[in-house]
Amino acid sequence: MAKSQNKTKPTNVDVTDFLATVEHKTRAADAEVLLKLFTDWTGWKPQMWGPSIIGFGSYHYRYDSGREGDCQVTGFSPRKASLSIYIMPGYREMGEKLARLGKHKTGRCCLYVNKLADIDLDVLKEIVLDGVEYMKANYEVSDS
Fold it and tell me: Which CATH number characterizes residue 122's domain?
């Protein structure tokens, strides 16, 4: 039986072209802000991962089950319901930062934010960079 393939892979879609398709005006404007911030914070060029994730950097993972693949180190997606911000190692020891962030929800590796006006961008920077540093310390990370 063939192993299942990761559906979220880097694509050649232009990030600017993708952002032009975001219909929700606030989400589109916030995505433009996040694009600049993530580029500045990480020093990496953005790349589309799958149809809707703007990712920065990449790393290779391998689970105990044998499943392996590549994924972005961090990134975001302007989804219809909210902005999804990807913090790949999750939120270990980030309780204090999350408490200072502002209005948000969390998933396993995602922060869900309705709009950037609801959160403190300096705290978001701390969270994103904490996640990036964790990934660099625990995985072989590249800038693409």
Answer: 3.90.1150.200
Q: In this structure, is residue 136 part of a structural domain?
A: yes
Q: In terms of residue numbers, what domain contains 119?
A: 15-142
Q: Give tens-digit pLDDT for 48-82.
A: 999 999 999 999 988 888 888 899 999 999 999 99
Instruction: Go through 30-62 and write b for each residue having 16 or more CB atoms within 10 A of its CB, e for each that does not.
Output: bbeebbebbeebbebebbbbeebbbbbbbbeee
Q: Which two tokens stand for residue 64?
A: 């105990």
Instruction: Output the pLDDT for position 2.
Output: 46
The answer to whether residue 31 scores a pLDDT higher than 50 is: yes
Distance CA 132, CA 127 (A): 9
Q: Is the pTM of this model over 0.85?
A: yes
Half-sphere exposure of 138 (CA within 13 A, CB side): 11
